[in-house]
Amino acid sequence: MAAGFARLLRDALHADLAVVRRRYQDEVRFEGGAGEIPDDVRNYIVAISCIFARGPDDSRLPFAVADTSELPKDSGLGPIGDYARSLVYAPLFVADELQGTLCVASRALRGYSADEVALVEIVGSIVAAGFASTTRLQTLEEQQRRSRGLVEVMAAATGAQSLNETLREICSVVAGISVVQRCSILLYDVDKERLVPVMSAGQEDPELWKRFRGSTPRAMDESIWREAVASRRPVIAEDALALASDDPNWRELVHTFAIKSLAAFPLYAGNRFLGMMVGDTFSRPVVFAAEEVEFLSSIAGQVGALIEHAQLQDLLREQATTDPLTHLYNRRYVEERLASEIGRTQRAGEASPCSWSTSTT
């Protein structure tokens, strides 16, 4: 849609270039265009979008610039002044929401008539309405995705038989339904006051898994953990290399696991700190949009309760199968283990662990 309107405007105004950009979160991305669009033009459109979102007179109306060289030096044009000598620019608003930007530019110095500017305004209003409808649809789809994700996490954890199985299922689901490629969980060791790596999913690499399980427990005084625990809010590092350069404790971790972007979420059950859920990417950096952070935060809130429940189940299971005085396995454990082993060998067609044979000569 956007590319079609851009082509229409370029042809109608006999311009060299027409570009439509759509607002997404806090940035404006290239959406569609017609004509030659070198990289510096794209950067220029971003710059002018930021500076002139409401026009030079702080209005929401489109405006024309007959000679871009007359714009202030701090306008953000940069070298594009040598390419686009004149332009018509329109911020795309629906109500008070900026949906995107539209720009028609020419290499030649020229003025734009009131009819041409009005045409840009009309086309811009149509494009803005289309973007608004698409945004609403995407919001609805995002809400449905979040609901499905929470259900999947709860279902996966409900069917688990132990804490490790619970954590494995949670990590697998999170890595599969969010922008992160890998999800890891570190549990807090109260006695040692350290975070112990216990589970990770999203990258099938046995050697890397061994490194993860064998990695040194993280001290709680490291900046990223300290910040997350103190605020009870996630810590986002879209550029993990920058994080590593600022914090020497993280340099080895970031390089060992090739972390490009990272989001760390504190896990709580009530007021009890349980550990951290860490989502990261290893093939490319990503932007953690506000909706994605909110989605992962809601999952982390559920994960804390699930971990507490799994830990309690493990404790009850241990108490039911060990002697409280000697801490040795009791008769119940031996009977359950024996029945399990007999069932396993029967299914496999093997000899029973308690069977023997006699032979006569």
Give a verbal description of the structure.
This protein has 361 residues and is of the alpha+beta class. Helix content is 47%, strand content 22%. It has helices at 2-12, 39-51, 114-158, 163-177, 206-214, 223-231, 240-246, 248-256, 290-321, 331-348, and strands at 17-24, 27-35, 63-65, 86-94, 97-106, 182-189, 194-201, 218-219, 235-237, 261-269, 272-281. The strands form 2 sheets. Strands 8-7-6-11-10-9 form a 6-stranded antiparallel sheet, with helices on both faces. A 5-stranded antiparallel sheet has the order 2-1-5-4-3, with helices on both faces. Strand 10 (261-269) and strand 11 form a beta hairpin. Residues 356-361 have low confidence and may be disordered.
**Approximate strand percentage:** 15-25%
Task: Report the strand count.
Answer: 11
The radius of gyration is: 30 Å
From the N-terminal CA to the C-terminal CA, the straight-line distance is 90 Å
* Number of H- or I-type helical stretches: 10
Spatial arrangement of strands, main beta sheet: 8-7-6-11-10-9
The portion of residues assigned to helices is: 40-55%
Structural category is alpha+beta
Give me the secondary-structure topology.
Elements: H1 2-12, E1 17-24, E2 27-35, H2 39-51, E3 63-65, E4 86-94, E5 97-106, H3 114-158, H4 163-177, E6 182-189, E7 194-201, H5 206-214, E8 218-219, H6 223-231, E9 235-237, H7 240-246, H8 248-256, E10 261-269, E11 272-281, H9 290-321, H10 331-348
Antiparallel strand pairs: 1-2, 1-5, 3-4, 4-5, 6-7, 6-11, 7-8, 9-10, 10-11
Helix pairs in contact: 1-3, 3-4, 3-9, 4-9, 7-8
